[in-house]
Amino acid sequence: MFRRSSPWTTLLASALLLAGCSRSSTSPSAGSDTAETRPLQVLRLGNGAEPQDLDPQAVTGVPEHRIIMGLFEGLATEDPKDLHPVPGLAESWEISPDGRTYTFHLRANLRWSDGSPLTADDFVQSYKRMLTPVFAAEYAYVIYNYVVGADEYYHGKLTDFSQVGVKAPDDRTLRVTLKNPTPFLLKLIACHNAWDVVPVKVIARYGRLDQRGSDWTRAGNLVCNGPYLLKEWRLGQKIVLARNPYYWDAAHVKLDEIEFYPIEDPPTEERMFRTGQLDATMDLPQDKIDVYRREHPDELHIEPYLGLYYYRCNVSRPPLNDKRVRKALALAIDRESLIKDVVRGNELPAYAVSYPGTAGYVPRAHLMGGVPEARELLAEAGYPGGRGFPTLELLFNTSQNHRQIAETIQQMWRKNLGIDIQLRNEEWKVYLDSQHTHNFQLERSGWIADYVDPHVFLEIWETGNGNNDTLWSNAGYDRLLHAALAAKDEHERYEIYQKMDAILVDECPIIPIYDYTRIYALNPKVKGWWPTLIDDHPWKYVYLDN
Questions:
Q1: Distance between CA 333 and CA 446 in Å, rounded?
Q2: DSSP conformational letter for 114
Q3: Are the C-beta atoms of 270 and 281 separated by less than 8 Å?
Q4: How far apart are CA 382 and CA 388, in angstroms?
Q5: How many CA within 13 A on the CB side of residue 64?
Q6: How many Å apart are CA 78 and CA 190, to the nearest integer?
């Protein structure tokens, strides 16, 4: 998933500070038949950016995912402490001896949030929508890379969806047939919203099934199946989720409401946390990390985070169509000083694409060399000392933190290579549009793992992948990816990944900068919130110790 950010106006921030004080303090005790009241359990979160949408099959970002986790649930869901797959809408499943067929058994009497029945056929219709070519879901590959017939259906080679390996023999049984054994499939289903079920019949009331951005995801229209439902969506202000009485495990949901605030400016977000308007931030300003270390260590969280901060190259645009230029840019960045002096969150300098240690995999290939080698490569590409090099533009989504990093790297490239880079920032939704329409030369980006397996860092660079917005293509790389999916065991699969990482280091379609840590502030009264490698916190387990 992509990393986000963008700032707010002072007027809007002030309005939020006032709005945060107007909430009722008590509510009927959930699940109680008495007239007793208790403090209202409302969790208030900084969420980085205004969501692009709340359609699980159309979004790609972290801000959207955090909200969708409360609204929708899949066949499996995540354990709150280590995110291993546990039963969700499916109470159990069986895997065939050859590892290629998964049979899921749904819970009895599942309901949508409008009270209507949820059946196995809803999953079939949902996956059909996800794989519809016109819908062009960026995450369609999360299904079509694995399921029999799904790739052919998505690419228009197959028009009969009944030939795709997703069947509903009855209302409570879903059978998924895979092309190859996929040992991480349950992890993928548990945490990736591409595998969620959506209310196809409801979506059809508001337009075509393959239409994006219709009104079905608005408050009052959105029908879901998770622990929460969409109570309110005030654009630019907040999104409120409230308990879903039809959720199968409603009796164990602890929070009454969750409020998500699209605060795209880390200093504003931090002030709201400090004044009690938020229980958790999405980020911390880089210049506040040491302050929290000294003065608020019980509120500061710096945790491992399975993600890569990088710059994306549009390889269709000169001079970035020359891999020597791309590699020169990569080698001319002093990652250690950037992390020590600017980022300040114990991040690790990244010299390869894969996050080292993911499920035991460590890439052997990494960027070799420094400024002398970078200058030599730039000279070989026809720009000795930077002479004649055109001014490049670096796009980033609006954020003080991203700007500070961009300005530091801009200075490094000017000093080390003699080239000029212009900076351009855009609000989150506009930035995403520029990314997907390739309206950029260089672009700040981040990739947060969707599940804990090295495959997640390598699959997106396949030719035509919905998240490969570099326009880079390498036939040998594509062949290796499919060979990895068909590998007979983990050792063989990991050795194929080593070759793929080596190609990415050599070609540099992206410039790895650092491996993330998760840096945020959290009120100690928030309980049921454990550090996890991909920062998922299943909301039904979270509560406030008042």
A1: 17
A2: T
A3: yes
A4: 8
A5: 20
A6: 6
CA–CA–CA angle 402, 408, 410 (5° rounding): 100
DSSP 43-108: EEEE-SS--S---TTT--BHHHHHHHHHH---SEEE-TTT--EEESSEEEEEE-TTS-EEEEEEPT
Cis-peptide, bond into residue 319, ω within 30° of zero: yes
321 burial (CB, 10 Å; 0-12 / 13-18 / 19+) is middle
What single string gives the DSSP state of each residue in 224-241? --SSEEEEEEETTTEEEE
Two structure tokens written together for 46: 């900084």
pLDDT tens digits in sequence order for the chain, 546 residues long? 333 333 333 323 333 333 333 333 333 334 443 335 678 999 999 999 899 999 999 999 899 999 999 999 999 999 999 999 999 999 999 999 999 999 999 999 999 999 999 999 999 999 999 999 999 999 999 999 999 999 999 999 999 999 999 999 999 999 999 999 999 999 999 999 999 999 999 999 999 999 999 999 999 999 999 999 999 999 999 999 999 999 999 999 999 999 999 998 999 999 999 999 999 999 999 999 999 999 999 999 999 999 999 999 999 999 999 999 999 999 999 999 999 999 989 999 999 999 999 999 999 999 999 999 999 999 999 999 999 999 999 999 998 999 999 999 999 999 999 999 999 999 988 999 999 999 999 999 999 998 999 999 999 999 999 899 999 999 999 999 999 999 999 999 999 999 999 999 999 999 999 999 999 999 999 999 999 999 999 999 999 997
Q: Which two tokens stand for residue 235?
A: 């654009």
The answer to whether the beta carbons of residues 363 and 498 sit under 8 Å apart is yes
Write a three-state SS string for 369-437: CCHHHHHHHHHHCCCHHHCCCCCEEEEEECCHHHHHHHHHHHHHHHHHHCCCEEEEEECHHHHHHHHHC
Question: What SS3 state is found at 442?
Answer: strand
**In 3D, which of 213, 142, 138 has the Cα closest to residue 435?**
138
Q: Please state the separation of Cα 45 from the chain's center in Å.
A: 17
Residue type at position 292: Y
Residues paired with residue 303 on neighbouring β-strands, in sequence order:
518
